[in-house]
Amino acid sequence: MLTIDALRRLGANTEEGLGRCLNNEAFYLRLVNMSLHDAGFDKLAAAVESGDRKAAFEAAHALKGSLGNLALTPIYTPVAELTELLRGGQDADYKAMLETILLQRGALLALCEG
Amino acid sequence: MSRRPFDHKRISGRIAIILCLLCVIGLFRPVPAHAESGSELVRVGYYENEVFQEGAEEGAVKTGYAYEYYRKLSEYTGWKYEYVYGGFGELYQMLLDGRIDLLAGLAWREERAGLISYPEAVMGSEAYYLVKQDSQTDITADPSTLNGKKIGVLDSAMVSVLNRYLEEHGVTAEVIAYPEHAQLLSAFDSRELDVFAAESDGSYAREHAEVLCAFGASDYYLCVSAGRPDLLAELNEAQTLLAAEEPNYLSSLSSKYYSVSVTARAFSAAEREWMETHDTLRIGYLENYLPYSDTDEQGHATGLIRDIIPAILDALAISDISVSYCGYGRYDDMVADMAAGAIDVAFPVGGGLYYSEENGIYQSTAVASASTEIVFKGTYSEDTVSRFAVNENNRMQYYYIRTNFPDAEISFYPSIDDCLAAVLSGEASCTTLNGLRANDILKNSRYKGLSLRQTGRSDDRCFGVEIGNEGLLKLLNRGINVIGSDFAQNLSYRYTGGLYSYSFADVLRDHMALFGSLILAVAVLVIFFLVRDSRRTRKENIEKESARIELEEKNRELAESKEALSDALAAAEHANRAKTAFLNNMSHDIRTPMNAIVGFTALAASHIDNKAQVQDYLAKISVSSRHLLSLINDVLDMSRIESGKVTIDESDVHLPDVVHDLRTIIQSSISDKQLELFIDTQDVAHEDIVTDKLRLDQILLNILSNAIKFTPNGGTISFRVIEKPSSSADKAVFEFRIKDNGIGMSEAFQKTIFEAFTREKSSTVSGIQGTGLGMAITKNIVDMMGGTITVRSEEQKGSEFIVELPFRISGGAAKDEPLPELLGLRALVADDDTNTCLSVCAMLREIGMRPDWTNYGKEAVIRAKDALDSADEFKTYIIDWLMPDLNGIETVRRIRKVIGDSAPIIILTAYDWADIEEEAREAGVTDFCSKPLFMSELRSVLSRPFRAAADTEKKKAAACDFKGKRILLAEDNEMNQMIAAAILEEAGFAIEIAKDGVEAVEKMSAAPAGHYDIVLMDVQMPRMDGYEAARQIRALEDPRKAGIPIVAVTANAFEEDRKTAMESGMNGHLAKPYDIPAIMETLERLIS
Fold first, then answer.
1. Is residue B161 part of a domain?
2. Are residues B61 and B180 in the same domain?
3. A-side interface with B, Cβ within 8 Å?
4. DSSP B300-356
5. Residue ranges making up the domain that contains B895
6. Using one digit for the tens of pLDDT, what is the confidence trace for B978-995?
7. What's the ipTM?
8. Which of B499, B531, B557 is the last residue of a domain?
9. Which of B915, B927, B973, B1019 to mutate to test the interface with A (most CBs of A within 10 A)?
10. CATH code assigned to A4-113
11. Model's pTM, two decimal places?
């Protein structure tokens, strides 16, 4: 079940996220659900796989924005890190970082489906 | 290249005769070139060929065997060269046509002899090898495995040699001839060829190549155009003279360029067999024979032997063999053990071939070839070498003397020191020392009376291997060749230091004459003055006095101008000296990590299968590389500062951010060294300043990391930020004090610490590395920012750096008006650091509260109870997380028991509180604040719990304000659109959404003026970003539309983002994720 408590247990800063949604739990959870099903994750994965850094940056940046607003810390943090590295055009093990992101997303998605 | 095999018996027989003849002729006839004032211009064909002849283009640096040979010839002929560049084929044609005069590297061929002229003497010779792709395991040294393979060869003399070889061995292979070297090599590199034919001297740099076998050899010549018999004659003459005057020239040139040839790493069958049958290498070495070998205090082998064996194994890429060392006090014992099979290699051996045969050993190629020095007393004569003192434990010495001085009388002594003593006492007339040892041994003051004389006959120090053990001998010889003959020479200095000792008594003795004459001179002077003064009468004194005053006046004038001059000179000299010293230090400091990197890389390579070990090495490499990088960065930084390239780039800075960031950066080094770090603030009223944050960080970080570096484990570092009274209302003056209780500095050093290129002690002494640039860089930046930096320090007690910097104040002055709802209320501060208590209390007082403080958690609990009992309870508690008697969380828990939920309790901590947050909240903590506490943070945290109710009311009031306002939200992310819409609708806005910059501009221009009240503009959007959209809106014709307030929303709170937003005409800047109060505040400000 996707609940505030479950999100909090996974490390999300629900207080902050809820605050941004004017403490409307249903609204917040709906947005969380949407953000986890965001097609941006697939775009990001495809771009990282194909080594298209520009596309990867754009996808990561968009995800960073929404995840940040929802304060989904466990997934926001690696996405933000990836975004900054891509912004700087640095060489890094993007695939490993992508894995972390997808792993976290998986954990959160499990809540939605469970 | 085309070098043809030829019948050289014919020539070599004649060379000697001709050589002699020409020598004689040469004596009576001047060299023609010299006669013509030595400036004949000779055109040389110059084609590119690895190692042999490199740099074949205009302006390129030329090197190589052939090039050096041309230069050498010029010494004999006076020729000047004009180099003509081209491919070999092209140049050969030019030689035939007489368009060039000389072309190198041609083999002798009957049919060519009429077309071009060959000189009498060869230019060099080489062997031809077959080289295969290393992956081709089906090709072996057995020629029949070449059947059906593709073999590439240069279209040259080699083709016929190769064909003959294949024919002789009945091989049918596809031989492909290439016109140019480059084509052949690229065909091999691209693996079109299975095998290619190489000269022994080429292609050694190819990793995928493996040598199969030799298939022929050839001499080659420097050929002359047929039309230039005059040059041919000069060439012949020069070569003859060269051969007479420098007989080893060609062989040394060849070893210089071709020592590491294609064959260097191809093991012979005997070597392979040895390697296959052995997994250990047992080394016996002679003790007490530095720099070659000795046993150190821990009982390990030391000296060159310790370096050279690993170096050889490494060079030959032999990694699966373990090496053991065994020291011998006596040479005979070592040789006996070798005969008994207890060791494989003895080191060093020497003294001549005859005795090594007697001992049953092969001598390897020389590891070190040093002359033998005769050590004697007094003057050298024939008699000096008549009676030798010989160390009975060092047979090499005995053999050498027996071989070279067969008639000398020999007496034996147990050690070389005894031999030298015997020479000193006259018991023996001389002894010998190996050249690498002699100088350092004779530095000992007890051998002062002894002199050295080189014999000129060198005595090689070699590895000894038992006769018959051919494989190992060849392996060692190969290794010695690969590491180079200067390897031992280059490393010997490391070990010769131990050969002599220099005591204080030696100093005294050495300088006895100097000390004595100094004392004498002082005594004489004293007596002279006493006598003179007593004779001088008063009258004379007065007369002289006036003359003296006049003279002094003149002198002073002179001295002043002289002083000015010498000051300038001294300054220049000082700078120069400092730079030299710096270079010396730097080269050491750079070499140290570099050596570590090289060394550990080699170690890692040799332990590649041991993952843990390799990881350990990599970690060490990483540390050293980072250190090296920081050195280089410092040097670059300094040179940028010195050349005036650094500028101060000012922007708005929030001081608490600077301080908290610094703490985060140094936290890990602080905890690594178990240091205690105290950061506090005092009287800070202006938190928003204008400065270059990067440079301010650099200043403070440099000082802080020095403090960390020079403070031993367990020490304390304090960092205090103090705002000083300022003379100007728009300026704030800050003092940053960084104090440690580390090793401190001498007074002398404190005076030069801010000069470039200085350091208290070189890193070898202090054990702490650095460039000596950090403080100079810091000082320069402080100067550029208009501040001052001073230091107080005492050795072994610690240092304190004080940086004072003026800043412009940005934004409004810090709010120091009281918080009305807290006015007059009591607050309790508990922190074990009194300074923190005082500074927090001062802030609380400014807010209007009545603070109390204590250093103890337990006391805080008692006071809470006491206050409650006396009906004047504390309305706020600020508790330190870490207190010695009772930790913060426990203190809070106990206070909560007393006061219930009646007042907020704030935890003050220097650490990230994420880990403790849950526990703390459970214990009743209301909020957290990081240390050091700044006024703005204190105000914000205190307003939260108390103003919550008031806030909601206010917010509602504010929300009403936005009723009827319309906002254009440019945002591409759907989720963010929803959240923003929710927030903004709640605040009363009507919202229209544009999903990128283009749409935003379109909507703006389509809507009537005044339709929108404000634009909230995301920056990163597809098609057109927010900056561009803002610029286009600003460029709209209708001034009301163009003037609409625009707020940028970016994912970063970076200063540069804010700047760019402002530059593109926006009015404000908000950070993502959304901060509702900040949004409301900004919107309110811009709309009203």
1. yes
2. yes
3. 16, 19-22, 24, 27, 31, 34-35, 38, 58, 61-62, 64-66, 68-71, 83
4. -EESHHHHHHHHHHHHTT--S-EEEEEEESSHHHHHHHHHTTS-SEEEEE-S-HHHH
5. 820-953
6. 888 888 887 888 889 998
7. 0.84
8. B499
9. B973
10. 1.20.120
11. 0.36
